[in-house]
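A reminder from the course coordinator: this example appears on the midterm review sheet, so study it carefully.

Given structure:
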């Protein structure tokens, strides 16, 4: 048996709660990465962290607008997802066009067995690191595409119910 659709007021509450949770998470995580990058004098990492944190701020701003009864807040929430995708795709593209495996080298402590397995696969350690680097950033880009697209779909699907809830409560005209 199929569940009945959410009441508009409940859809509004859920959308605002989701936007606050998602926006805060993005803001906190990206802000922490920006601070970490700034502490190591990584200008690019700091800039990207701040640009990503801005996406979280956009989503929180949208939630605040909707909570105040302004339907245009939904545009901020949806726009924040597209903005975040654009920044992450720019960053991933930049990293994939300027591969730097030296980032992984200090973190890598391979056992003799692992070195042998890499050699048996016909790869050098540098080739292996290159593959790990490319795979890491590709997965990051694909995961971003999937998650942010799902968020856009969620907000767009809930938009009519949110608009109805705002109108029902005479919050917008």
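Designed residues:
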């Amino acid at each position: 048996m199929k569940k009945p659709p959410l009441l508009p007021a409940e859809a509004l509450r859920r959308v605002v709660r989701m936007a606050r949770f998602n926006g805060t998470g993005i803001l906190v995580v990206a802000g922490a990465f920006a601070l970490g990058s700034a502490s190591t004098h990584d200008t690019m990492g700091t800039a990207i962290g701040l640009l990503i944190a801005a996406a979280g701020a956009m989503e929180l701003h949208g939630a605040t607008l909707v909570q105040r009864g302004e339907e245009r807040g939904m545009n901020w929430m949806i726009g924040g997802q597209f903005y975040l995708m654009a920044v992450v795709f720019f960053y991933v593209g930049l990293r994939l066009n300027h591969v730097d495996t030296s980032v992984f080298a200090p973190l890598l402590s391979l056992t003799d067995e692992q070195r042998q397995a890499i050699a048996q696969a016909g790869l050098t350690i540098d080739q292996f690191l290159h593959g790990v680097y490319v795979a890491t950033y590709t997965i990051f880009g694909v995961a971003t595409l999937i998650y942010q697209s799902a968020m856009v779909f969620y907000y767009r699907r809930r938009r009519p119910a949110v608009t109805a809830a705002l109108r029902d409560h005479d919050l917008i005209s």
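Residues 8-168 form one domain. The mean pLDDT is 92.
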